[in-house]
Amino acid sequence: MTGLNDQVLPRKLIVAVGSGGVGKTTTAASIGLWAATQGKKVLVLTIDPAKRLANSLGLSEFGNDEKQIDLSGVPQADGGELWAMMLDTRTTFDELIRETAPNQDTAQRILTNPIYVTMSDTFAGSQEYMAAEKLYDVVSSGKYDLVVLDTPPVKNALDFFEAPGRLSRFMDRQVIDWFLHPPKKGFFSTVVSGTSAVIYKLLGYVFGQDFLHDLSEFLQLFNEMVDGFRERHEHVMALFASDRTRFITVCAPTEPSVEVAGFFAEELKRRSYPRAGVVVNQVHGCTQGPLEPQVLLGETAKELAADLEPRTAASLVARLGAAHGRLRQQHATEQKLVRQVERLGSGRVHEVPRLEHEVHDLAGLLEVSTHLFTEPLSREESS
Ligand SMILES: Nc1ncnc2c1ncn2[C@@H]1O[C@H](COP(=O)(O)OP(=O)(O)O)[C@@H](O)[C@H]1O
Ligand SMILES: [Mg+2]
After folding, report:
1. Measured at the alpha carbon of residue 257, what is the angle toward residues 251 and 263, in degrees to the nearest 5?
2. Residues lining ligand 1, judged by CB closer than 6 Å?
3. Distances (CA, A) of 360 to 29, 56, 209, 260
4. Ligand 2 centre from 87 Cα, in Å?
5. Is the separation of the CB atoms in 248 and 277 below 8 Å?
6. Which pTM does this prediction carry?
7. Domain residue ranges of the chain, discontinuous segments joined by +
8. Which atom number of ligand 1 is nearest to the Cα of residue 368?
9. Fold of the domain spanning 5-170+227-287+335-382
10. What are the tens digits of pLDDT across the range 229-285?
């Protein structure tokens, strides 16, 4: 098979990683659309689609709704469906509480606890954490053949991969136990409980008794859910490492972006996560050699610029020639970077040209997916 087909179609989960602004969301959506045209029921879980793309797909910013995209204008195999969801961190957090809480009463008390309200709004890394959480839900629901996850644009890849671990650790049972039941025996306990008594008094003084009540209630309630969190986290980690998953790195043909791709290559390798290659997006094409603008354009320019001064016409032609020269230069620089990406050893490298227009609708996504999925194998691979 050509392009990314054999990497994508047999999987349950595709994760697109890379720095922001390079076309990660576009790539994730294109992969989803292609799989749907091949008869798969696909969900694209996205974080920050460009406004025009979100609008044209009918995605709304709030509420975590899975929304079916109308594919009536797109040729496709039977059974294919494309769904998309824009992740809303807060709603996901609330849903998570409802699902992991032992009963409705506990869930309700947590959701209305002021500490929870503040924490869920400001919790560092909650977006990454929630992406992983939602992922667990949709993959384990069995509703989709394939889920494509568009990861948040984090500078540090670790933020994303370790966010679930961070929350588990934060909510570690031992830590919470310690808060709830400080050690009662020995010298250490005297110091410790003395300390926490002072701290509690101080907190009470600063924040008021209500705060202390909210905090202790919050910790008690969360305590009941720690095992649930950990279990889900372990499932997500196991899914990431399994053969049902592929990670695709997306980058632009620029030095900083290729550097980030290199960082991801290392991280994915270190964690033994299955890699499906790298997409280098927005590559400038220029296959022609140097052109002599006067030779190429001289006659045409003469006709088109009949009413221009000969000197003006000549200068226009010279400028066009210079522009072409710059494009060739840029092409050469970008191709060097593509070779550099190939040497990362992160799997096959797929180039997607920079299109003449932004990718803001199904037609644009389909165009990108054609580059990703129907490119012929290179000579070495087909032999
Ligand atoms: N191959 C391409 N050709 C032209 N424009 C593109 C291409 N890929 C992405 N874009 C445009 O670049 C912008 C950023 O793309 P997006 O997928 O939102 O990036 P990211 O998710 O990495 O931040 C969008 O406006 C999108 O339409
Ligand atoms: Mg994006």
Report:
1. 90
2. 20-26, 50, 153, 281-282, 352, 354-355, 358-360, 368
3. 11, 7, 52, 25
4. 12
5. yes
6. 0.80
7. 5-170+227-287+335-382, 173-224, 293-332
8. 1
9. Rossmann fold (3.40.50)
10. 777 778 888 888 999 999 999 999 999 999 999 999 998 998 889 999 999 999 998
